[in-house]
Amino acid sequence: MTQTRNELETSSADARLVVVGAGFAGGSLLRNLPPALQRPGETLLVDRAEEYTFIPLIHEVAVGRIHPDSIRMPVAPHDASYSTVRAEATGVDLQNDTLLTSSGPIKYQYLVLAPGSVAIPPPEGLEEHFQTFWSLEDALRLRSSLNAYWSAALHGDVPPGGLTVDIVGGGATGVELAAEVAALFAYLRKRSARRPAREHRVVLLEATDRLMEWLDPYYHKVAMEELGRLGVEVWLNSPVREAEVSGVRAGGEWLPAAVRVWTTGVQANPLLRGLPGEHDDAGRARVDEHLTLPGHPNVYVLGDSGIYEHPELGPLPPTASVAVQQGPWVARDLKRRLRGAASRRGRPPFRFFDRGYAVSIGPESGVADPLGVRTRGRAAQALYRSVLLYFMKSRRGRLLTGADWAMERTLGRVGFDYGGQRRAVKE
Known about the structure:
single chain, alpha/beta, 2 domains, FAD/NAD(P)-binding domain, 5-stranded parallel beta sheet, 9-stranded mixed beta sheet
């Protein structure tokens, strides 16, 4: 059930467990709560949103392959075993075990901070010339821009660079988005009755000499080959230093482009800045072997918010595959603590199991290394889709997303103009 601030004041503004954020880490914790924390008043979720967006699929919303409603779902289901309050967490008073929120202070015995991350914005002087890409709103804004320039091209009214899309940042998000946009333009050319006035162009700009540099070099190799097959131009060693309304300057060369997207990564939620201890360059707070803040054993920091040093792998990246293992582990740790476990034997440290990673490279290809087995092409794409559907919170979301994929060839792309026949969409 969802409680307003007034309802909290009339009952209790305290909870034994307070969870901030219902993303991959927080959501997986809440779905695995020990019985002792499933009673009314025991667990409280604090989240500023009523709906949760399945972020890994927003690039497919941007190109019309998935309807936005398919990846929207309630933050708390109707049968949730915890209470919720819609508010924004603004700080933590560690001395008094109190979470500060936009609706007032909330006392806790255990606190889990999993507010997620925010997009790294373009540097000062460039921000007005780029769209960021880290939310459903960003995806819908980009979809609108792509459709507007495509429609203009069909009617012969497009400026130079009007069908050129610059994507800055060669991480997994940039690679997936570049591949989808290139596949979109190829799809629209086949489906449209008219020919566009200009040729499309998709350019992926990366400041270093490698795509997805935090992954095995195999990912870079496959991505370069597959992006080339789709017609994406990849500019390595090409940092963006200058931008205007008409384009960008990258690697010393001017590149006209009407659509410019910034996907250089994410950083920790501003809530983490006020926490004591060590932080990395992205603002993530370093945690100990139990995923708790050093010196504050009752405060867990999960997902994109915490940086955990794996004994063999080093600092784990801010990915969903890490977050969905941390949430259930914390649920088990809380169960042990509530039973009185205190020793290392009674509370074993967090252990991450590396299942591998999967990256989509267009509608029909991908690259993955499940359990160390390298795969690419359609098999990797099938694995990618299976993993995402598995980690979706709702059965409804899985059914709708699967239906969107299955019906794409029949119904076309959501929100795009094929030359006078624009599909009506409710959003």
